Amino acid sequence: MFIAVYSFKVKPGEEDTFIEAWKALTELIYKHKGSRGSRLHLSSKNTYIGYAKWPDRETWQSLKTLPIEAEVLRKKLGESCEEITTVYEMEVVEDLLKDKVFDS
Fold first, then answer.
1. Is residue 104, in this structure, part of any structural domain at all?
2. Which DSSP symbol is given to 62?
3. The domain spanning residue 28 has which CATH number?
4. In-domain check, residue 96
5. Domain containing residue 47
6. How many structural domains are present in the chain?
7. How many Å apart are CA 45 and CA 13, to the nearest integer?
8. Distance separating alpha carbons of residues 37 and 103, to the nearest angstrom
9. 18 and 25 Cβ atoms separated by less than 8 Å
10. In the chain, pLDDT over 70 holds for what percent of residues?
11. Residues 59-88: pLDDT tens digits?
């Protein structure tokens, strides 16, 4: 499994536009490119951290070929940000995250 971690510095007042574009682009990537989904976190004022889960690095690298509507979403996302950085590209060694909540 492969994880990519991104940092987004969002322009003041563009938070809603950014989040909507991020969600739509993430759904498109999930549907067409085999991602395992993504999460978005607010780190500090106007700085968001996102991480995306992939079956492997090769699948992640295939992002260059997406449906044409992805370009519109990428542009919208990019225009709402001052900076977008891929912070980490990581192979999963162990995975103990739990997606279900169990009763004690």
1. no
2. G
3. 3.30.70.100
4. no
5. 2-91
6. 1
7. 11
8. 25
9. no
10. 93
11. 888 777 778 888 899 999 999 999 999 999
Q: Is residue 102 part of a domain?
A: no
Closest CA to 70 of 16, 27, 19: 27
3-class SS of residue 68: coil
Q: How many helices (H) and strands (E) does the chain have?
A: 3, 4
CA dist 65 and 59 (Å) reads: 11
DSSP string of 5-58, one letter each residue: EEEEEEPTT-HHHHHHHHHHHHHHHHHHH----EEEEEEETTEEEEEEEES-HH
- Round to whole Å and give the CA distance between 15 and 31: 24
Q: Which residues contact 86 (CB under 8 A, 6 or more apart)?
A: 4, 5, 6
Residue 83: C-alpha distances to residues 15, 66, 78, 88 (Å): 13, 22, 8, 15
Tell the residue number behind the tokens 């990537």, with chain if given: 29
Query: Rounded distance, CA 9 to CA 3, Å?
Result: 20
Task: Say if 68 falls within a structural domain.
Answer: yes
